Amino acid sequence: EDQVTQSPEALRLQEGESSSLNCSYTVSGLRGLFWYRQDPGKGPEFLFTLYSAGEEKEKERLKATLTKKESFLHITAPKPEDSATYLCAVRSSGSARQLTFGSGTQLTVLP
Amino acid sequence: NAGVTQTPKFQVLKTGQSMTLQCAQDMNHNSMYWYRQDPGMGLRLIYYSASEGTTDKGEVPNGYNVSRLNKREFSLRLESAAPSQTSVYFCASIPGTGHQRNTEAFFGQGTRLTVV
Predict the structure, then answer these.
(1) Of A91, A98, A101, the CB nearest to B48
(2) Which residue from A65, A111, B72, B113 puts its CA 20 to 30 A from B63's CA?
(3) Any residues with CB less than 8 A from the CB of B62 and at least 6 apart, and which?
(4) Under an 8 Å CB criterion, which residues of A touch B?
């Protein structure tokens, strides 16, 4: 059974204070690790897909990295508009048609 | 450019009532999904449809039924609502069947359901 654990559950940062969110996973053959952003009252919005250990992707102040057991979402010099819940999900060869989600990290960036 | 559209956005039901949540996508995607999101539990898969005419159970299917009406539409039905089904429901779609790369899911805006 695929499992995804995100930490911390909540994170408060001052504007400009860089940090990282963690996503640990256990799957039978990773076919993709996905990061989503979710704003209050909205559906998740796709950010990144990572497929193999060592892969990195960047978008503005966000950078996602992947190892064989976990992924990190690094936030550099965050702004208040980066406040959201960040969700991690995996797709495995054992359940290629399904995404298994973690419970998310609620990020608050204070001005 | 609508993407994934869910209706209704909000609904209050009494215990035992039935209702259908509607979902439609205009991206010509093959696979569609229904998730529920509860505080502290993330998104959990209820049912999915890898292609028109097929449906499969996910992690939490009890108390729900689905219909893949055509390639665009995938509905979720609660036959006899229970307070435990109070949740936010999300519909999603992906381009392929899940076995290909670049198959990120696109989500609707959600239906907030309260069962009293």
Answers:
(1) A98
(2) B72
(3) none
(4) 4, 9, 31-32, 34, 36, 41-46, 49, 51, 87, 89, 91, 96-104
pLDDT of residue B98: 54
What's the CA gap between A23 and A74, in Å, rounded?
Answer: 11
Contact B105 A34 (CB under 8 A): yes
Q: Mean pLDDT, to the nearest integer, of B74-92?
A: 97
Contacts of B98 in chain A (CB under 8 A): 91, 96-98
CA proximity to A100, closest of A32, A49, A51: A32
Q: In whole angstroms, what is the distance from residue B103 CA to residue A58 CA?
A: 18
pLDDT at residue B50, as a whole number: 86
Query: Could you give the CA distance from residue A53 to residue B95 in angstroms, rounded to a whole number?
Result: 25
Residue B39, pLDDT above cutoff 90: no
The Cα-based distances of B5 to A27, A107, B9, B55 in angstroms read: 31, 27, 10, 20
Which residues from chain B sit within 8 angstroms of residue A105, using beta carbons? none
What are the DSSP E strand ranges found in A60-94? 62-66, 70-75, 84-92
What are A44's strand-pairing partners?
Answer: none
CB of B110 closer than 8 Å to CB of B89? yes
- Convert the pLDDT of each residue in A54-98 to its tens digit: 999 999 999 999 999 999 999 999 999 999 999 999 988 776 677
Q: From the list B31, B40, B110, which residue is nearest A43 (CB)?
A: B110
The order of strands in the sheet holding B19-25 is B4-7, B19-25, B74-78, B64-68
Percent of chain A past pLDDT 70, that is, above it, reads 97
